[in-house]
Amino acid sequence: MKQTLKSSGKVVVTYLSAVFLFSFFMIGPLSMENNQYLWLTLLSFILFLFLWSFMTQQMRKVGFYEKNPAAAIHSYPLKGFVYGLIGFSPFILLEVLYFLIYQPGTIAMQSFHVLFRSFFGPMYFLIRGLGYTWYAYLIATVSVPVMSLIGYLIGYYDISARNLLNKKDNEDFLDG
Length: 176
What we know:
Layout: H1 2-25, H2 27-30, H3 36-67, H4 79-101, H5 107-119, H6 124-129, H7 134-156, H8 161-165
Helix pairs in contact: 1-3, 1-4, 3-7, 4-5, 4-7
């Protein structure tokens, strides 16, 4: 359980780092007069790529470590998705709460709306591209555990560019 919370915490910290960067760098596009949403979408996409890189790197290390028999941890290939779900659960709860209670009009609800949207900042390009629908938020929500799963699988199966490039065929094409 301790290892699960520790690995899930890596997912939370990585995602919150991307949210912080999005919040910090979105000041520029918000101050622009024209193409404001285009720049926010571009910023969101760039930070999504950083999130993808950081998340897969963190979870690759976890998957590689847990696959090691000396670690004495029960590991299985889909464990990265579980880590992603547990780590992203505060944001999932925020999303469920938002869709259950949000009614526009009051200042408190507008503040909640801004908070909700800022937490999904790195996924803004997905949500905007799919038209702010419920399935856009669902896809954005599932994308973080899927990133975690892919990173974990890369570490679990020890997939790397170096391993893929250094594989040598035992068979020569010209030898019959």
